[in-house]
Design goal:
Length: 325
């Protein structure tokens, strides 16, 4: 049985990856320090003997006994609210954490895939974003701690590949949504759904004309799975090119939830990218991958998940205080 280490295992993407690798017949070691992850996301796997869980911070030395075939590094805060609350941890997990895991990959002769992000493109001046674009990042802005950690992560990963010859893969993940997103992480999908379910107005930041392109989690996981088992070492965008303005997205949520909420406008957070859409030609070419879940379908599944929360859990999920605007 092949063994895979998944960091950030209790998080949104990490937990879906655990499920997928268990389903494919792997022995999965999930690792998380539970700062932003939730143990509930992997609790259903605890009864399986093919699953182990280590409560560990990857910025400290990582030890795994025995053989290891693959590492997927998905530990990191991943929302603007989290970067504001824990900026130093965000920098450390992308830099020191990645260094530790690359060292582990070298030691075990394991293949490692690291989770990068569309944030490496910053507030992009090229549209849609392809992998050749170098990006437009403000190093000292509120998102800088995430963006620069992820950019460093890509550099050190390529350096380990070229200098030490280890097998590396880099995925640049665009906005993804689905069950197990954190209700109060401030991202627009749980924010809008939470507000609609609480009967509150939806908060649009800025004029709402900024765009995002949302990918359903199952499509993303499929892309990552294919990338790991491909022989392509350069970064690959994975995301859904179906682009929408935040204003139109708010209207879609109001329709979907069948509520009669209004939208209200707040200030746009600093360095909030005005547009974002992946160019996925590379993923099509090297992985024969493209998304196939429409937003209408994926959002229905996501809404079902959030409807499972109690009123008390929903009421704790208001994120606006953090943003202070
Ligand atoms: N956004 C919004 N209202 C909210 C939360 C987010 O209008 O309650 C906007 C946010 O300013 C951004 C977009 O939605 O322009 C996507 O935000 P998210 O945090 O989900 O992702 P990111 O900005 O990292 O793409």
């Amino acid at each position: 049985m092949k063994k895979v280490l998944i960091t950030g295992a209790a998080g949104f993407l990490g937990s879906h990856l655990c499920d997928r690798f268990i389903k494919e017949g792997f022995h999965v070691i999930g690792m998380d320090n539970l700062i932003t992850g939730d143990i509930k996301n992997v609790e259903h796997l605890f009864k399986l003997k093919q699953f182990e869980f280590y409560n560990h911070d990857v910025t400290k030395f990582v030890h795994i006994p025995g053989e290891l075939d693959y590492i997927l590094h998905f530990a990191s805060p991943a929302s603007p609210i989290d970067y504001l609350k824990i900026p130093i941890q965000t920098l450390k997990v992308g830099s020191l954490g990645t260094h530790n895991l690359l060292g582990l990959a070298k030691e075990k002769k394991a293949r490692i895939l690291i989770a990068s992000t569309s944030e490496v493109y910053g507030d992009p001046l090229v549209h849609p974003q392809n992998e050749e674009y170098y990006g437009n990042v403000n190093t000292i802005g509120p998102r800088g701690v995430y963006d620069e950690a992820k950019r460093f992560q890509e550099s050190i990963t390529m350096a380990y590949h070229t200098y030490h010859g280890i097998e590396t893969r880099i995925v640049r993940i665009f906005n993804t949504y689905g069950p197990r997103m954190r209700l109060n992480d401030g991202r627009v999908v749980p924010a809008f759904i939470g507000q609609a379910l609480r009967g509150e107005d939806l908060t649009i930041f800025g004029d709402g004309l900024q765009t995002r392109s949302f990918c359903y989690v199952d499509d993303l996981i499929e892309g990552i799975y294919r990338l790991l088992f491909s022989d392509y070492v350069y970064p690959v965008n994975i995301g859904n090119p179906d682009e929408i303005t935040i204003k139109d997205f708010a209207e879609e949520i109001i329709k979907l939830t069948g509520t009669d909420q209004k939208v209200i406008y707040k200030d746009l957070p600093v360095n909030d990218p005005l547009q974002r859409q992946p160019d996925i030609s590379k993923a099509k070419e090297v992985l024969d991958w493209e998304p196939n879940v429409f937003r209408s379908e994926g959002m229905k599944l996501t809404l079902e998940y959030f409807k499972g929360f109690s009123e008390k859990e929903l009421s704790k999920s208001d994120h606006r205080d953090f943003l202070n605007n």
